[in-house]
Amino acid sequence: MLLNASGCLDALVAPDVARSLDAFVTKTVTPLPRDGNAPVRIAETDVGMLNSIGLANPGIDRFLNGSLPRLEQLGVPLWVSVGGFETDDYAELCSRLDDYPSIGTLELNVSCPNVEAPAESAAQIVAAARLATRKPLWAKLSPAVPDVGEVAKAAQAAGADGLSLVNTIRGLKLDARTLRPVLGPGQGGLSGPALKPIALAAVATCYRATRMPIVGMGGIRTGDDALEFVAAGARHVAIGTTLFSDPDAPARIRVELHAAAERRGWNTYEDAYAAAHEESLSLRTT
Amino acid sequence: MRRERLDVVANEPVGAYTLLRVRRGGIDTGVPGQFFMLEAPGRLLPRPMSLCLAPPGELAFLIDPVGPGTRALCTLDRGEALQVLGPLGNGFHLDVARPLLVGGGIGIAPLPYLSEQLRHPPAVLGFRSERHAEAASLVPNAQVCVEPTLVTELIPPGFDVLACGPEPLLEAVRAMAGGAQLAWEAPMACGYGACYGCAVEIDGALKRLCVEGPVLCAA
Considering the entire predicted model, what is its pTM? Predict the structure, then answer.
């Protein structure tokens, strides 16, 4: 399955792009509306980009009354990403979203690098969300932890159905002339090609630790990139930063992914699932 | 919006700037003030550029080589090609009684096409050097000044102002010409509402410039 990374596509502004995906993942919804962070919010780096959007979103009330009815019209399966600042926020959001049959899956954003208040532990949030909804729950994790496999195991034990790997990691760009931060808030989340090896490692680690279904993302630009994520242990892949430069990327990557699998003698890319682990000694972390 | 790989026709110096001309392909020229995302060779993200001129069968963009992306665009040669996405955003409203075009620096980029569509109304343009001011040749019927004279000093009363330029210029125009149409700029990753990177404060709320603008009416 091919998805977008949360926050990397507005399906209501670009419905055709959303329809080119197997499921659309919303930008993270929080209990209250958020304007997001002050500009400047994005900056290109040599091998990626930084963003500091700060979870700008209309809040759950306006999402349910304004956005969701329009998203339902798209005819694309919906994943709703939810975020908050304490465990109760997640539970409340999941409980309210549970009533809407059009929503297929809830993704718990427990890893946004651009908000000040630290979210509580991923497992605690998953456990509270689990009590609040019957919908499939996917935990979106940060790779910027000592052992993402341990976090994944805890999320699994708390009732998560899958993992979204990975969110961006904190980065800083300075203006070469002034030596001051380029982004308004200072630091931001690094995405793009720079993230790919980090994301692949997280996918491989979490696959080994949990055998859970995983949406792999981080620097996927081509079908070959996507196939690497599948081989590392991702059932699904998501496109993020690449959507910014190429709204046609989902259709292209889908074709390339199938071609890349066929080139290696597989009937479908799914045959490549976890292929990297067949000689798993070489993947063991040191 | 449509994305297509377009062939470079020419890259011509215009004073301190470069006019990048590409074959139009199936891409619409749009309304003056709308913009296009141009693939910057070797860079991760495309760069937003408003259409400067629409010669038959071509799109032309005026580019100021200020960073790695714009410098790469300025060195493209005939025979090379680049991905172009557009037209994007909201352009100028052309139904104005007494148009006056106001431009500052690279902000004159959308004015040649705008001037053509409005049948060459008067224009006032400001630049930071004589070399930059050579680009004024692209805008007919223009009065030109160079710093330290500011272009706002050349704006006569009683006109419907359509302006593009750096933020201080637009703020000054907004203060002196109510109802002016102002084309703003912000860093953008996508240009089509996906990244939320180009948020600016509009009527007290942060909104995406690529969706709500880039041309906005001054309150």
Answer: 0.94
